[in-house]
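The instructor's notes for this session suggest beginning with a concrete chain rather than abstract definitions. Hand out the sequence below and ask the class to guess, before any prediction is shown, which regions might be ordered.
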Amino acid sequence: MDVTAHALESALAQIAPHTRPAGAGDVVAGAQPSVVVEPETEEQVAAVLRYANDAGLAVIPRGGGSQLTLGAPPQRADIILSLARMNQIIEHAPHDLTVTAQAGLPLATLQSALGAAQQWLALDPPLTEGATLGGLISTNATGARRLRYGGVRDQIIGVRVALADGTIARGGGKVVKNVAGYDLPKLYTGALGTLGVILSANFRLYPLLPYGATALLEADDLPSLGAVVQRILARPLTPSALDLFSPDAPGAPYLLAVRFESGVHASVEGQAQAVCGAQVAEGAQPRSTLSGADEARFWSVRAARWSIPLAAQADPSAASATIKVSLPLTAVAGWLVELERARLAGDLAARWQAHAGHGILMARLAAAPEMLIERIEALRQVAIAQRGSLVITNLPPALAGKLDPWGPVAALAVMRRLKQRFDPNGILNPGRFVGGI
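After discussion, reveal the predicted structure:
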């Protein structure tokens, strides 16, 4: 069904009053949508989807917009469906350690509210403050403390979604029944909005622990720190984070940060001292142990590194990309050695952080466009050979057609069947997910 931008805006405004023409700031991976609609209720979301499904119009769900670069460019982009106005905490049950909140609520806002009860949602992805709960679920965003608390799939216990035809479905905890036998909370985690629009979610919570300490160790070579990581994992220690960092400057050492949290002050002190001891730290040098404001500042500064341009980007011909790599724990150091070999060769700039305790790595790369493509493809093959994967989370639109952001996926046939079941007309984020789903 052909419809002009003005007619589409008028039709959607009758469903959700907060509707406007899309502008340059609403472009998604080079695709310009026609209209932005901001529903205030679940019923409005469902009605917008029903209208789009009947008209064959492509819908791009959006939360805070912090991860719109993830995935391939959409095949079509007619409507941006923003959840920005659905941003309330629906229910917080402190004694049950659960919270239910709308999908458009920023994670930072939720954490602030939960902090008043000395609780938190145990997710710490290095994203902007505008990142929303729906976006975190859809992209399965993760952070350093996943080592102790798990990821989104471990925290989410219930979900409400609007399907492509406008049906509102519920699944998981605190609901009457699931939908079609599927575990909806896990199904929608990491689905990139291709199976429905998340309306709200129910999460488990954790107490905020009063004591923390981070032990820092450094070495001039990665294998030494990789061996330290393996020793720590083999000992009766309970780190919340176990992260390796790229050098801060040319010639600087590699850094390992081991974070501990507890309700007992002696526990974090003792574990930090054990990490810095000779038996664990063989091959690496202890730098310091941080606590209190110093520890908080360290992790805040490390998160802010992702917003700092790489040196290679000073060259106007250079292109930049961000990748997420998942590997078995024993393969992390070896893959990083390959990345560092490319960086030290001088044709690739790189900044990276490896969650060495759970095998997920993030890296920001910059190089001449053709060299960037070559390096990413080579690093992907190294990851695949080690039974891992490499996903490109941010790529310039000019290179979008030259690199598959997702790489090979063994379960693609199953995922296609799920897409056909939940979105048979293909209106939700068309073409952005694996295999062009």
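Then share the key points. The longest helix spans residues 369-385. Confidence is low (pLDDT under 50) at residues 175-181.
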